[in-house]
């Protein structure tokens, strides 16, 4: 009897073979990892080409994708066909799904195994409620990581030619949101007191279009002059990008005459007097030789 025949007849061979799972290499590759993991990814401000290389790689590997309203179809197409796509549609003032339900979904899919991607517009750490989602995952014992994205403020600076800081105009920049869990709540305007001596920060307001009048009134109460320049930057970095500029005194009237769709970023400060002329055609693929 040959050595191979003896092995195949032995109890050892039966115990080894019984542990094998006979399936194709293709099925093996498609089988999700039993150890679930979640990656919270910033999708950027709207231009699909502003997605980071790392984010693109992870999207291509995703088994489940939870995405917001601001995520473009071009980005969704990066995920593989087998990927389960779940819309959790959040925009300022219009939430298709409460945050608590999103947290529970992340935990649910994370416990099922494979790679779960949570795709958020802009950068997930800037007004993206990332701390709440991370806390839910951590409490459930699910491994997670974060991939930053280009936030709207940086995209607005580049695509609209607005320096967020400039020597002699602003040496710092402050991000604030006009949206709160309680719609009646307002920012603490005493924290944004206008300084008559020295420079004031550039203010960048997220999700503030629907509360523009309250925003202007609040800054006026903190001493900001009526002539302070303010710009409304709509759908930044997309083909639908629009801009509207005025002062704290007249911007609401200008908006009424020229409505914007949103999402809209608001920039306030003297840096608007130092705007740069940016040629966006240079960023188009057709402009590259």
Automatic annotation (TrEMBL):
Keywords from the named record: Methyltransferase, Porphyrin biosynthesis, S-adenosyl-L-methionine, Transferase
GO biological process, one term: siroheme biosynthetic process
Highest taxon of the lineage: Bacteria
GO molecular function, a single term: uroporphyrin-III C-methyltransferase activity
Enzyme Commission code: 2.1.1.107
Keyword flag Phosphoprotein: no
Statement: the UniProt record of this protein carries the keyword Calcium: no
InterPro entries referenced in this protein's UniProt entry, alphabetically: 4pyrrol_Mease, 4pyrrol_Methylase_sf, 4pyrrole_Mease_sub1, 4pyrrole_Mease_sub2, CobA/CysG_C, Siro_Cobalamin_biosynth, Uropor_MeTrfase_CS
Pathway field: Porphyrin-containing compound metabolism; siroheme biosynthesis; precorrin-2 from uroporphyrinogen III: step 1/1; Cofactor biosynthesis; adenosylcobalamin biosynthesis; precorrin-2 from uroporphyrinogen III: step 1/1
Classification via CDD domains: SUMT
Database matches in SUPFAM superfamilies: Tetrapyrrole methylase
Domain Tetrapyrrole methylase intervals: 37-251
Similarity annotation: Belongs to the precorrin methyltransferase family.
Entries under PANTHER family matching the protein: S-ADENOSYL-L-METHIONINE-DEPENDENT UROPORPHYRINOGEN III METHYLTRANSFERASE, CHLOROPLASTIC, SIROHEME SYNTHASE-RELATED
Name the UniProt record assigns to this protein: uroporphyrinogen-III C-methyltransferase
Source organism of the structure: Rheinheimera pacifica
């Amino acid at each position: 009897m040959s050595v191979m025949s003896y092995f195949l007849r032995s109890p050892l061979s039966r115990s080894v073979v019984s542990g094998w799972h006979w399936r194709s290499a293709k099925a093996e590759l498609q089988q999700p990892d039993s150890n679930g993991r979640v990656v919270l990814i910033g999708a950027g401000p709207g231009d699909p080409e502003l997605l980071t290389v790392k984010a693109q790689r992870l999207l291509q590997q995703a088994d489940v994708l939870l995405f917001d309203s601001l995520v473009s179809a071009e980005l969704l197409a990066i995920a593989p066909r087998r990927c389960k796509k779940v819309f959790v549609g959040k925009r300022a003032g219009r939430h298709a799904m409460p945050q608590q339900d999103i947290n529970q979904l992340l935990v649910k899919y994370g416990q099922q195994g494979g790679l779960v991607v949570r795709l958020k517009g802009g950068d997930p750490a800037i007004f993206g409620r990332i701390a709440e989602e991370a806390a839910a995952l951590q409490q459930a014992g699910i491994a997670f990581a974060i991939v930053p994205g280009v936030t709207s403020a940086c995209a607005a600076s580049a695509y609209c030619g607005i320096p967020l800081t400039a020597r002699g105009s602003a040496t710092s920049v402050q991000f604030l949101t006009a949206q709160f869990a309680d719609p009646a709540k307002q920012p603490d305007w005493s924290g944004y007191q206008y300084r008559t001596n020295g420079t004031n920060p550039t203010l960048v307001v997220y999700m503030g279009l629907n509360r523009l009048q309250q925003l202007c009134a609040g800054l006026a109460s903190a001493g900001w002059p009526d002539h302070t320049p303010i710009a409304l930057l709509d759908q930044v970095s997309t083909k639908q990008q629009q801009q509207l500029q005025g002062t704290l005194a007249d911007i609401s009237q200008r908006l009424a005459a020229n409505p914007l769709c949103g999402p809209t970023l608001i920039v306030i400060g003297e840096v608007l007097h130092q705007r740069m002329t940016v040629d966006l055609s240079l960023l188009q693929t057709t402009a590259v030789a």
